[in-house]
């Protein structure tokens, strides 16, 4: 399977090149040259497969002969070695818990798969691989833990000062070894812009072997399809054959992976893009005008993205036709006040404590049900453990949140992070010096 740039379909590379180069020279994003169709028998019998078996079938279809079958099975089994249960809240509403990995966020699926893929391809004696990543919260922790100790790699994480939660910051800044953190006095969009500028800088690329661990990397997108297929398998065991997915959406890689799964044959009735007030995509679906704007800080910080990078992939999947996207994607936006009310409502109705991103996805399900008079199965994605956002919850709910042992282990560790502004020359100088 070859991968092309969304800016030039004639520019095609191997999976290995797409992983390590991350972004094509024309600044597009890589996509598979064809969307493989999973067999009807696999979909019809998917409830008989485990998560790792599903993951292998999907990865094998997308990568074809890029990695030998036995090696790919081992990579997938090691990367996706934790559960992703679709927990029933009522007879037709489910929360897909994607926070059971090491960083307590859905991004563990992508980060662990990517680190194993890169480790598989890296050879002893090769130039050090410098992984650059911008994070609005959870990406950095997942990448840090995914790459921690991986030989011949060095990870540099850029995060916006004062805009990640204390636990998220601990995951970024206390690991040491081959993990470095930079606190940027700006927004996530500023962090992302610095990373993109680094990839476009000829001097840096001559000196360093740069790659990205953000969701622009195709090896992050592929493993995120796994849990959509697995969620459908879980619902099928309960007798459902139709499903709506509500997805907390910031950089739009998560819902992009779901739409890729749909294009591969996953039966999905509708996708719901659930956003906070950073509503570039909802506005586009309403007006037909795509207009990015500076991001605004909210309680759901992993979704504080004003210019979602992965939207170009979604438009590519739907042949650049906004009308086709609107047929499959509904969108809703919610304020911080509504998010808090959603957190309270889920707890009151189901005795379930949801993080702010999860609450937004829940609110979007409720809105969609009302607008479309839909009473079928709905799955809303829980993208992070509630403990990562302690300051968001009312005291009575915060007291009920169980703190995992992995989080307690970070307490008391010294913060290791440099501080920089948003100017690229400052970041470039830091990279050359460090």
Describe the 3D structure:
The model has no long low-confidence stretch (mean pLDDT about 95). The strands form 3 sheets. The chain has a 6-stranded mixed β-sheet with strand order 4-5-13-10-11-12, with helices on both faces. Strands 9-6-7-8-14 form a 5-stranded parallel β-sheet, sandwiched between helices. A 3-stranded antiparallel β-sheet has the order 2-1-3. It is globular, with a radius of gyration of 20 Å. It contains 20 helices and 14 strands. The two termini are about 35 Å apart. The longest helix has 17 residues, at about 355-370. The protein has a domain at about 80-105 and about 220-400: Rossmann fold, CATH 3.40.50.1100. Helix 5 crosses helix 10 (about 220-225). Helix content is about 45%, strand content about 15%. It has about 425 residues and is α/β, with parallel strands linked by helices.
Largest sheet: 6 strands, mixed
CATH topology description of the domain at 79-105 and 220-398: Rossmann fold
Which structural class should the secondary elements be placed in?
Answer: alpha/beta
Could you tell me the mean pLDDT?
94
Helix content: 40-55%
Total helical segments: 20
Name the CATH architecture of the domain at 79-105 and 220-398: 3-Layer(aba) Sandwich
Question: What is the 3D form?
Answer: globular
Radius of gyration: 20 Å
CATH class of the domain at 79-105 and 220-398: Alpha Beta
Contiguous runs where pLDDT drops below 50 for at least 5 residues: none
How much of the sequence lies in strands comes to 15-25%
Q: What's the count of strands?
A: 14
Sheet with most strands: strand arrangement: 4-5-13-10-11-12
Compute the separation of the termini in Å: 37 Å
């Amino acid at each position: 399977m070859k991968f092309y740039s969304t800016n030039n379909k004639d520019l095609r590379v191997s999976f290995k090149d797409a992983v390590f180069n991350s972004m094509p020279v024309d600044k597009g994003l890589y996509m598979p040259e064809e969307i493989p169709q999973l067999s009807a028998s696999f979909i019809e019998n998917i409830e008989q497969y485990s998560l790792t078996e599903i993951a292998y079938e999907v990865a094998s279809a997308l990568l074809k002969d890029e990695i030998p079958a036995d090696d790919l099975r081992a990579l997938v089994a090691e990367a996706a070695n934790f559960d992703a249960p679709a927990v029933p809240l009522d007879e037709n509403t489910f929360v897909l818990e994607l926070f059971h990995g090491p960083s307590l966020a859905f991004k563990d699926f992508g980060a662990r798969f990517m680190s194993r893929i890169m480790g598989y391809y890296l050879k002893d004696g090769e130039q050090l691989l410098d992984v650059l990543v911008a994070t609005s919260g959870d990406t950095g922790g997942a990448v840090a833990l995914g790459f921690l100790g991986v030989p011949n790699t060095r990870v540099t994480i850029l995060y916006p000062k004062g805009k990640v939660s204390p636990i998220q910051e601990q995951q970024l800044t206390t690991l040491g070894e081959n993990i470095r953190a930079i606190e940027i006095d700006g927004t996530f969009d500023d962090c992302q812009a610095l990373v993109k500028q680094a990839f476009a800088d000829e001097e840096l690329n001559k000196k360093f072997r740069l790659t990205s661990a953000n969701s622009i990397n195709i090896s992050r997108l592929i493993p995120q399809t796994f849990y959509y297929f697995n969620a459908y398998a879980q619902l099928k065991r309960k007798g459902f054959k139709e499903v709506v997915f509500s997805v907390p959406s910031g950089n739009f890689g998560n819902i992009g992976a779901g739409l890729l799964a749909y294009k591969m044959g996953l039966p999905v009735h509708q996708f719901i893009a659930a956003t906070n007030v950073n509503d570039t995509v909802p506005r586009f679906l309403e007006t037909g005008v795509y207009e990015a704007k500076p991001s605004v800080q909210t309680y759901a910080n992993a979704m504080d993205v004003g210019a979602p990078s992965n939207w170009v992939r979604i438009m590519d999947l739907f042949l650049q036709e906004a009308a086709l996207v609107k047929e499959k994607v509904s969108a809703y936006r919610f304020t911080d006040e509504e998010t808090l009310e959603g957190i309270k409502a889920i707890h009151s109705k189901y005795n379930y404590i949801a993080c702010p991103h999860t609450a937004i996805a829940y609110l979007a399900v409720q809105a969609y049900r009302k607008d479309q008079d839909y009473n079928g199965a709905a799955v809303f994605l829980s993208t992070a453990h509630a403990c990562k956002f302690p300051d968001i919850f009312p005291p009575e709910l915060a007291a009920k949140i169980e703190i995992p042992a992995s989080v307690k282990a970070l307490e008391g560790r010294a913060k290791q992070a440099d501080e920089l502004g948003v100017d690229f020359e400052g970041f470039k100088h830091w990279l050359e010096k460090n």
